[in-house]
Amino acid sequence: MNKQMKQIALVLAIILTGLQACEKDPKPNTAPVNESELITTLIIEATDSASGQKSIFKFKDTDGEGGNAPSQFDSIELSPNRTYSVNLLLLDESKAAVDTISNEVLNEGEDHLFNLTVSNLNMAIKLNDLDKNGLPIGLKSIWSTGTSSNGKLKVVLKHQPGIKNGDPALGETDIEIEFNCRIQ
Amino acid sequence: MYLEGINLYQLKKTILLALGLFAFVFVNAQNINCKIKISGIVQDSFEQVALSNTIVSIDSIEKETKTDSKGQFTLSGLCPGRYEVHISHLNCEHIHIVLELRSDTLIKIFLRHIEKELIGFKLSAKLEKLEDLNHLNAKNMDYRKGQSISSLMQDIAGISLLKTGSAVSKPMVNGLFGNRVIIVNNGIRLEGQNWGMEHAPEIDAFLASEIELIKGAESLRYGADGIGGVIRISPKSIFTEKPKSLNGEINLTGNSNGRGKTGNLILGGVLSKNLPIYIRVQSSIKQFGNIKTSKDYLANTGMSEFNYSINLGFQRKGFLSEVFYSEFQNKIGIYTGSQVGNLSDLEKAMNSGTPLIKANFTNQIDRPYQLVQHKMLKFKNALQVNAKNKIELTLSYQKNHREEYDVLRSANSFTGPSFDYYISSSFAELVWTKSPFHKINWKAGLIGLRQSNAYTGRFFIPGFYQNSFAGFVIGNKQFKKFDIEGSLRYDQKHFDIYRWIGAVSNKTQVNYSGFAYVLKAEYQLSGKEKISFIQSSTWRAPAPNELYSNGLHQGLASIEIGDSTLRTERSYSQSLNYSLDLKKHKFDIEGYYQIVNGYINLIPSNKVILTIRGAYPVFQYQQNKAALYGLNARWKYQVHKSMYTIIGAQLPYGQNIDTKDALNLMPSMNGKLSLGYKHRTLNAEVWVNYQSKQSRYVVGSDFMPPPEAYALIGFEVNYEFKAVGQNFKCGLTGSNIGNSSYRDYLNRFRYFTDEPGINISARLTMNINQKQN
Question: Which of A19, B228, B261, B442 could serve as B181's disulfide partner, Cβ 3.0–4.6 Å?
Answer without folding.
Answer: B228
